[in-house]
UniProtKB/TrEMBL annotation:
It comes from Tranquillimonas alkanivorans. It comes from the Bacteria. InterPro entries: Hexapep, Hexapep_transf_CS, LbH_SAT, Ser_AcTrfase_N, Ser_AcTrfase_N_sf, Ser_O-AcTrfase, Serine_acetyltransferase, Trimer_LpxA-like_sf. Belongs to the transferase hexapeptide repeat family. It holds the Pfam family SATase_N. This is Serine acetyltransferase. Keywords: Acyltransferase, Amino-acid biosynthesis, Repeat, Transferase. It is an enzyme of class 2 (transferase). Its EC number is 2.3.1.30.
């Protein structure tokens, strides 16, 4: 199986591009040679590079880099979906973040991307019944990246979390494919209930900085939540909501708001009263 994965990597356009960019980076800045070689060029596949990178970032006196790397290698070997999602997330960051100019940037420098990949490892552990270890991963992701995602939350692929500081996603939250969110977003509950209590975010949703979506409510596909909004009620597909509490202020503005990353309310939109 390992040989098959390495052969696949030879025709993997994402990994091929990362390696080419890594070689350019070493040539342009030799002082980063050790980091780039150990994190990227030393590895045969994207999955192995991610396992190394995650283990290096999350290692502490409580759990070594070697143990974490063995766990990550096991996860990537067991579930091809982890590598597929990692590639989709990386392309999403490159396409949507104007500060991202190379594929290697999320791998090496962007904590939003790295935190999501570490969450995916914790989620895999959760699905395997290894819940205490999943909680450990959640704790370290929160401590290292400032991103707190419960390992039972279900998150699709093509996810872009820009800046990523103070992101909170609760235990029963569901996030669809191709969702974009900025820093300080909360997908939380509204009380002490212990059943299904967190938001369900459909595909293609754009969530602005500081927005809070609370309760077991549905946010329709390709909708847009304005920065700083507090969403307490269901949002229909392809609408823009804003305010505290949030109300519908217009259409989504385009067919793919999470890709266009347009946070500005158009002239046809109107702010909710009160």
């Amino acid at each position: 199986m390992a040989d098959v994965r390495e052969k696949i990597a030879e025709v993997d356009p994402v990994w091929t591009r990362i390696k080419a960019e890594a070689e350019d980076a070493v040539r342009d800045e030799p002082l980063l040679g050790g980091l780039v070689h150990s994190s990227l060029l030393h590895h045969a596949t994207l999955e192995r590079a991610l396992a190394f990178r995650i283990s290096m970032k999350l290692a502490s006196g409580e759990m070594s880099e070697q143990i974490l790397r063995e766990i990550a290698d096991e996860a990537y070997a067991a579930d091809d979906r982890l590598g597929i999602a990692a590639r989709a997330d990386l392309v999403a960051v490159y396409e949507r973040d104007p500060a991202c100019h190379r594929f290697l940037q999320p791998m090496l420098f962007f904590k939003g991307y790295q935190a999501v990949q570490a969450y995916r490892l914790g989620h895999w552990l959760w699905t395997q019944g290894r819940r205490d270890l999943a909680y450990f991963i959640q704790m370290r992701v929160s401590e290292v990246f400032g991103v707190d995602i419960h390992p039972n939350a279900r998150i699709g692929k093509g996810i872009m979390i820009d800046h990523a500081h103070s992101i909170v996603i609760g235990e029963t939250a569901v996030v669809g494919d191709n969702v974009s969110m900025l820093h300080s977003v909360t997908l939380g509950g509204t009380g002490k209930e212990d059943d299904d209590r967190h938001p369900k975010i459909a595909d293609g949703v754009l969530i602005g900085a500081g927005a809070k979506v609370l309760g077991n409510i549905k946010i329709g596909y390709c909708s847009r939540i304005a920065a700083g909004s507090v969403v307490l009620e269901e949002v229909p597909p392809m609408k823009t909501v804003a305010g505290v509490p949030a109300r519908i202020v217009g259409e989504a503005g385009c067919s793919q708001p999470s890709v266009m990353m347009d946070h500005l309310l158009s002239g046809s939109d109107h702010l909710p009263e009160g």
